[in-house]
Amino acid sequence: MKYNMKIFWLLGLSALFVVACDASTDAEQSEVKVPVAESNQTQQTREVVMYKAPNCECCTGWADHLRQAGFNVVEKKHDDMSAIKSEYGVPDKLASCHTAIIDGYVIEGHVPAADVERLLSERPNVVGLTAPGMPMKSPGMQAVGKAPKSYDVLAFSKDGTHTIFSHY
Q1: Which domain holds residue 69?
Q2: Of 33, 66, 102, 129, which has the fewest beta carbons less than 10 angstroms from its beta carbon?
């Protein structure tokens, strides 16, 4: 009888050990899955949809600049850029050649990737950022790798008000 009781206890302890090991394995597996989901979410928020005129090469240069910074840029050619700008609330006085959308924000024109990253990090209550016109020393308008120079990037609101976000 004593042996039966000891065997019973040993079997019980073994079963608890197996259950505990199985639970820790599940926890370890779920820990591995969480970062994967987070990295997928990060990739999704780094997708930029850029609307541009069919033959605009400086827009492609800007898209390449963002790609080099790790963004996934989808270029969409559009014949009526005024309609796109109107749809996304870009005031005429703040317009540029292309309009991009990332994670609910509008990026108008040749805004440097560092400013887009800062926007996504700080998440201010604005419609988006713009580099009005086509600044000659901006990404896409000058040689690849040169620093932006001699212009402002503006943050703009729904009512068209704007403030300087970055100065180059």
Answers
A1: 47-167
A2: 33
Phi-psi region of 135 (alpha: psi -120 to 50; beta: other; left: phi over 0): beta
At 90-132, the pLDDT tens digits run 999 999 999 999 999 999 999 999 999 999 999 999 999 999 9
Which residues have C-beta within 8 Å of that of residue 45, sequence separation ≥ 6?
A: 102, 103, 120
Q: Are residues 22 and 77 in the same domain?
A: no
Identity at 130, one-letter amino acid code: T
CATH number, residue 71: 3.40.30.10
Identify whether the C-beta of residue 48 lies closer than 8 Å to the C-beta of residue 67.
Answer: no
Check residue 45 and give its pLDDT.
56
Type of residue found at 158: K
